[in-house]
């Protein structure tokens, strides 16, 4: 097999019937030059092949350096970070220490701390019930939250309170047709559960009880209904006191009952004859 790195140069001499080129005057010298050129090419091919074979058996990887960017012998210099103002460090330390001291020594107000604790209660002296407040809701969270709120409000009004007592649930169910066309023979069931809690006030002043109920109505919670039964202790002359208070009650209810049974925007101050004699109906009378 011929060596791929050997270049064969053929030349025709005068013995083969060719003519000698004008620049090759001496055929012997030309043959010598061709032989030397062939030997040099063979040596170059053998050396290259030996180097390529030696590179395959190297176990230590050679270091390859990219020619696109010059190597940096020294590490790049890092820019020094800007130093903080030495006068601000003591001020920050003093501020943090002062805030830490305030957090350790100070406390939240009593009203805020009471939110995370159980409601406070007043102790009943005689145990006479004066008010039963019943809370109703379809949600457990709503009724429990508002019951806790009512008990805390009773404490600040100096009202002894007991409860909340869970009452039996009211379960209502309805069975109705699913539809009036294709599904008219199939039925669908609905269920509604009402949750109840009872809060009782004992030995309370009637005015304080009324203020407590008014406060609960003012700050009523959504989804919670209230029903209150109030007992008041009166003397034997209760009929006389009721007759004396009747004019005052009637006077207080007069603004609310003035428009009872008729529309406010449809009321007229004049009678029917004044309306007929007005200018509105004068033209029709002449016709």
Automatic annotation (TrEMBL):
GO terms for biological process: translation. Gene3D superfamilies: Ribosomal protein S10 domain (3.30.70.600). The keyword Ribonucleoprotein applies. One of its GO terms (molecular function) is structural constituent of ribosome. Residues 84-94 have a biased composition (Polar residues). Residues 11-33, 69-94 are annotated as: Disordered. Residues 132-229 form the Small ribosomal subunit protein uS10 domain. GO terms for cellular component: ribonucleoprotein complex; ribosome. The keyword Ribosomal protein applies. Pfam families: Ribosomal_S10 (PF00338). It comes from the Eukaryota. Keywords: Ribonucleoprotein, Ribosomal protein. Belongs to the universal ribosomal protein uS10 family. This is Small ribosomal subunit protein uS10m. It comes from Penicillium argentinense. The lineage of its organism: Eukaryota, Fungi, Dikarya, Ascomycota, Pezizomycotina.
